[in-house]
Amino acid sequence: MGADRRQLRGIVLAEDRRTERFIRHLLDVCGFDKRKFRFHTAPGQGSGEAWVRVQYPGEVKLLRAKVHQRLCLVAICDGDALGVEARKAQLDEALRQADLQTRAATERIATPVPTWAIENWLLDLLGEPNINEAKKPSTEAGPTWKQLFERAYGADEKGALTEAANRWDTANPRLPSLENGRVEFERIDQ
Prior knowledge:
8 helices, Dna Topoisomerase Vi A Subunit, Chain: A, domain 2, 4 strands
């Protein structure tokens, strides 16, 4: 399977730079040739999730037009307060609004949804205790997930992202969105 993974080409739509960097590490650790992937990341102004949702139909259409090639698409955006299923429903609706069919089970289209944010996944993969997605910590009640990650790993983000990617297949996830994200990621390996 490893040789097949190295032949796969794809596009990654990411809502922010940290998510993009993590997916780069993850592709590398999982045996994909990340140089064969194009990364499109939200520009930083406005909602990154909305940017991914706007780009998604065009990338799906392009993937479907090149069905004879071994291509994939990863569209990753945070679940925020909505969660996994509602965010995926929004992506499906974006396809319908563009007069496209929703993704089929056989298509190499993955839509992982970290809830609340990628930092939840990273902290969980790195074995940090008390990480959950039941509610978003606020600055009034304590630091946000992003702030917790930056305090613990900000000095060596690259090392933390690499370690989290290395634990992708071995860590026992406590977060439902991370477990679902693993299933989603497997879609590109069909």
